[in-house]
Amino acid sequence: MGARAAPKGRAVSATRAAAADALALDTLSIREVARRHLELKAMLERGAAQVDVSTLGSIDTAGLQLLLAAALAAQARGLKLRLLGAEQLMSAAAELLGLGAHLREIAEIVP
User: Please, what sign has the CA dihedral across residues 83, 85, 86, 87?
Assistant: First the structure.
């Protein structure tokens, strides 16, 4: 049997395909930081370093600090944290708090 071609208009972008393997975060506030920290730690221990923030509905300073800490932890393991769908995050919360430039230095921002 041959491989089936994807129907027209249904091709999956590289970012979406990568997002399927990423840890998805829909909220990241102080209430979730402890749980999310454990999830991020487990992800890094598996050698993965992708976080899908494309559906992130809310984030606060504690959430941004956690992403920065995860990026630094990834760096210490020889990885680079990839933040998928992060254009909204970068243009809003991170920039408002003055953390955008620092996050761009240590993480890969994927639109």
Answer: positive
Strand ranges across the sheet with 81-84: 23-24, 50-52, 81-84, 107-110
Three-state secondary-structure class, residue 65: helix
What is the per-residue pLDDT across 20-42, written as a single tens digit (0 to 9) for each?
A: 679 999 999 999 999 999 999 99
Q: Is 51 helix (H, G, I), strand (E, B) or coil?
A: strand
pTM of the prediction?
A: 0.78
Closest CA relative to residue 86, chosen from 73, 99, 69: 99
> How many Cα neighbours within 13 Å face the side chain of 67?
34
Q: What does the block give as tokens for 92?
A: 């809003």
